[in-house]
Fold this protein.
Amino acid sequence: MPRDMSGTESGKSLSMAPARKAHAQGHVRNGVGEIPVDGAGSQGKVNKTGTQAFGSTATYGRRYLLCMLFNISTGDDRDGNAQTAEPEDVQTITEAQASVIRELIEKAALSNDVFCKRWQIDAVTDVPMSKFNEVVQSLRVRIKALKEKANEEKNNG
C-alpha cells in the first residue's frame, strides 16, 4: 500500500513493497522496502501517469526486495537501456553459411559492399550467427521482388 510521505526530503510519496519469507520449520523473516515513486523513464524524462509510476515502482520494488531477501544477483542490469557495445565473443556464421549468403547476394544483384554496409559488418563472414536466418530471409525477399519486377516488365513490355 502506498502511503503519503510528503514530509520526506524529496516531497514525493513512497511505494511500500512488503515481503515475507517463511521456512517450513517456522522461521519467518519480514521486510518492507520504501521506494520513492519514480515518474521518469529510463532516459530521465517524465513519461508516466501517477498510476503508471506507482505500478512500475511497485514492480521494481517487489523484484529488488525479493532479490535482497534471497541474495539473488540479476547480472548486468542496464535499467531498460540498450547495450552500448557488442560483446567481443559474438559467434559468427560458418563458412558454409557464408557461401549460402554469397550465392544469395549474387542472385539479389547486390555488391558485397552494399550488403556489408546494410548489415553493418566488414565481411560476409562477420554476420552474427543470431542474424543468419534474418539475413537469408531478407535476401530471399529481395530476390523475389526482383523476379516479380522482371516478370512485370516482360508482360508489359
In short: Confidence is low (pLDDT under 50) at residues 1-11.
